[in-house]
Design brief:
Structural class of chain B: mainly beta
Number of helices of chain B: 2
Helix content of chain B: under 10%
CATH topology of chain B: BH3618-like
Largest sheet of chain A: 3 strands, antiparallel
Number of domains of chain B: 1
Number of helices of chain A: 1
Radius of gyration of chain A: 22 Å
Order of helices and strands of chain B: EEEEEHHEEEEE
CATH superfamily of chain B: BH3618-like
Oligomer: heterodimer
Structural class of chain A: alpha+beta
Strand content of chain B: 35-45%
Radius of gyration of chain B: 16 Å
Shape of chain A: elongated
């Protein structure tokens, strides 16, 4: 991991066309401005972790092939 | 639509199912190494479908079409996501969301924050993360009850 120190208003450039700027620092909160091409994904890590965790809870593991036994739905309209 | 589920053991899959092989270049979040999945749909199991890993036959997800339960569910894809999926037309897109079974409480919930978007034309899919405060990972869709104390409850579906 590359560790850089930045002051308010300073920028970091990633590659050719990704720019990160420190917009505001307030206590433990940092506000960052990110400029990137449309095809670059920008995610908050905790959001990805949250989905990954839900996937783990949702995942059916240990199914034997073919995994055919299971739930039949009885639809009830509410 | 509220669903009550009763677990039956099926000895043989008698009804027709539709299997679509999907390429997921990023896998599922937390399961990034598995990039080939089959979406299994059949009237007998509706509204449930299965997203089954091809590379790991022991890994699968129960999924639903969230619009069947939440007609107002609307999602916005970023340019990055649209590009990755090669989506040129919104009508080529199909959405499914994973279902989680809480075995203790008996709830069934679906993840509306991280839906899976499918390009039905190219057979490419990606799990996306929404930036929308309306949605979370556990939206209630019904409850289920077990008739038998199956030691292998996670083998269901």
């Amino acid at each position: 991991m590359l560790v850089l120190g930045r002051k308010l208003g300073q920028k970091i450039i990633l590659g050719d066309d990704i720019e990160i700027m420190v917009l505001e620092v307030r206590g433990e909160h940092v506000r960052l401005g990110i400029t990137a091409p449309r095809d670059v994904a920008v995610y908050r890590k905790e959001m990805l972790d949250r989905i990954a965790e839900e996937n783990s809870e949702a995942a059916l593991t240990g199914c034997t092939q073919p995994c055919t036994s299971g739930f039949l739905a009885e639809g009830l309209l509410s | 639509m509220v669903i009550n589920i009763e677990q039956h053991k099926l000895e043989e899959l008698t009804d027709e199912v539709n299997e679509t092989v999907l390429n997921m270049p990023s896998g599922m979040l937390g399961f990034a190494e598995y990039k080939q999945f089959v979406l299994v749909e059949g009237e007998k199991y509706a509204p449930f479908k299965r997203l089954q890993s091809v590379d790991n036959p022991q890994l699968g997800f129960v999924v639903i079409d969230p619009m069947e339960f939440f007609p107002d569910y609307d999602i916005e894809l970023s340019d990055h996501e649209t590009g990755q999926l090669g989506l040129e037309d919104a009508t080529d897109a199909k959405i499914v969301s994973t279902v989680t079974f809480d075995r203790k409480e008996g709830w069934m919930t679906t993840n509306l924050l991280g839906p899976i978007v499918i390009n039905t034309k190219l057979r490419v899919a990606k799990q996306i993360v929404l930036e929308d405060e309306r949605y979370g990972t556990k939206h209630l869709i019904g409850n289920h009850s077990y008739f038998e104390d199956s030691k292998d409850q996670r083998q269901a579906v």
